[in-house]
Amino acid sequence: MNPEKETYFADVVLPIPVKQYYTYRIPFEYSEEIQVGSRVIVQFGSRRILTAIVVKKHRNAPTANQVKYILDTLDEQPCVNQIQIDLWTWIAEYYMSSVGEVMNVALPSGFKLTSQSRIQKNPEFTLENTFNSFSEREINLLKVLEKKESLPYHEAGELLEVENPYRIIKYLITKRAIIIYEAIKEKYKPKIVKRVRLDKQWVASEEKVSELFDLVKSSEKQEKVLLKYIAILETNSLTERNKKGVEKSLLFKKEGERISVSSLNTLIKKQVFQEFEVIVPRFEISEEDQRFNASILLSKKQQEVRDNILAYFTEKDTVLLHGVTGSGKTEIYIDLIQKVLEGGNQALLLLPEIVLTTQIVNRLKKVFGDQMGVYHSRFSANERVEVWNGVLNSRFNFIVGVRSSIFLPFDNLGIIVVDEEHDPSYKQFDPAPRYHARDTAQVLARLHHAKVLLGSATPSLESFYLASSGVYKKVLLKERFGEVSLPEISLVDLREEKKQRKMQGAFSSVLTNSIEDSLSNNKQIILFQNRRGYAPYIMCEDCDHIPSCSNCAVSLTYHMYSNNLICHYCGYKEKVVNLCNNCGSTKVNAVGLGTEKIEDELQDLFPNATVQRMDLDTTRKKYSYQKILEEFGSGKTDILVGTQMVSKGLDFDHVNLVGIFDIDRLIYFPNFRSHERAFQLIAQVSGRAGRRSEQGKVAIQTAYPAHPLLQNIIRYDYEAFYKKEIYERKNHAYPPFTRLIRLTLKHQEKKEVANQAVRLTTKLKKKLGEKRVLGPESPLIDKIRNLYLKDILVKIERSQINLKQVKKAILEIILDTNDGKRFKHIDISIDVDCL
Question: Which of 158, 384, 810, 834 is an S-S bond match for 108, by CB 3.0 to 4.6 Å?
Answer without folding.
Answer: 384
